[in-house]
Amino acid sequence: MGENFNMVAKTLFGFEDLLEKELQQLGAQYIKKGVRNVSFSGDKGFMYKANLALRTAVKILKPIHAFNVKNEQDLYNKIYAMDWSKYLKPTGTLAVDATIHSELFTHSLYIAQKTKDAIVDKFRDTDGQRPNVDLKFPDLKINVHIDRNRCTISLDSSGDSLHKRGYKTATNIAPINEVLAAGLIMLSGWDGQIDFMDPMCGSGTMLIEAAMIACNIPPNLMRKEFAFERWEDWDVDLFEKIEESLLGKTRDFHHKIIGYDKAPSAVAKAKENVKNAQLEDFIEVKHEDFFKTQKGGDEKLQMVFNPPYGERLNIDMEEFYKNIGDTLKQNYPGTDAWFITSNLDALKFVGLRPSRKIQLFNAKLESRLVKYVMYEGSKKGKYMNN
User: Fold this and answer.
1) Cα–Cα dist 175/272, whole Å
2) What would the mean pLDDT of 229-243 be, rounded to a whole number?
3) Cβ pair 279, 211 in contact under 8 A
């Protein structure tokens, strides 16, 4: 196949270990973990594969040049000096985004603008015509990363963030990001060997991600487009071959994935999204109030959910979290329950001691993923069994 090059997969804070492991399993080389990112090496086919198959990546960048910068003019000159004709036609379109951790530069939009100016000026000077900016569907999406005085220019191979899997047409009031959902389920250690439940399933994201993990279905098969499909070296035959080989690795799933929500509108949306994802065979969504339910059967159950957190939904926190604890304790023996919350004070109302706490962020909100283990032989259970 083609030759190997370096890439960077970006992720959410707290998912670096998961992403590193995913890259190892996919067959990446020279893997190196950073903060919110993991760098690795692979060929063009591997770049396609990473975009299709990684559950915890939000972007796959391909660095093409790095240099030191002193000021804005220096940045402009060095970007102007690059040979952009390898990546873009003068009649093409481009978009630039910038991330900056530097005291020299403070304004990422200005840096993105300066980069774009240098590229279009170069084309105008050499070809007499210039590419246009297209923020929605550019032929080339460019990422500028400045860390102190070091600037890295990368091509964004993903385009839209990889959390946009393509199965969601309907979302509810507080939808969870698909990458976040997949990461939570992976952190919980769920591998499709027992039943899974999301008792507050909203638009069904957690259920769908769980089913894709259980069946080893690549998460981004349904996406409409990746940015690399507009690149000069786009190889559709290679892409289809990669897709086919990933589909050949899916597996059967012999347990249940169940979602409850007490809002009929959420249940309808979840069902629609499950249908879009073509996972109706594996997922059952029911209109239920979790606090009035109990576990069916003696099978071990894994629960992962994202309870409402008062930011967007009006609830009495103290009572709500107490109800979570009581319902788990009384009605769900033999269950490992995990949930994420950004309301760190509310955790004390659950009335149970978490066996694990993992620091994460839900969008900009600092959060905790907590685990509660409900043992099979609860006190009530012991007396009833005698």
Assistant:
1) 14
2) 96
3) yes
**364: exposed, middle or buried (Cβ count in 10 Å: 0-12, 13-18, 19+):** exposed
Distance between CA atoms of residues 237 and 178, nearest Å:
28
Say if residue 188 is in the same domain as residue 84: no
How far is 53 from 90, CA to CA, in rounded Å? Answer: 33
- Among 364, 15, 329, 361, residue whose Cα is nearest residue 188: 15
pTM for this entry: 0.93
C-beta of residue 186 within 8 angstroms of C-beta of residue 55 = yes
CA distance 175 to 196: 19
Dump pLDDT digits (tens) for 127-140.
999 999 999 889 99
Alpha-carbon distances, residue 53 vs 58, 84, 156 (angstroms): 12, 29, 17
Per-residue pLDDT tens for 335-353? 999 999 998 888 999 999 9
pLDDT band at 170 (very low <50, low <70, confident <90, very high): low
Task: Indicate which CATH number applies to the domain containing 106.
Answer: 3.30.2130.30
Q: Measured in whole angstroms, how far is the alpha carbon of residue 221 from the centre of its chain?
A: 14
Residues 55 and 200 in one domain: no
Q: Average model confidence (pLDDT) for the chain? A: 93
The boundaries of the domain holding residue 144 are: 5-156
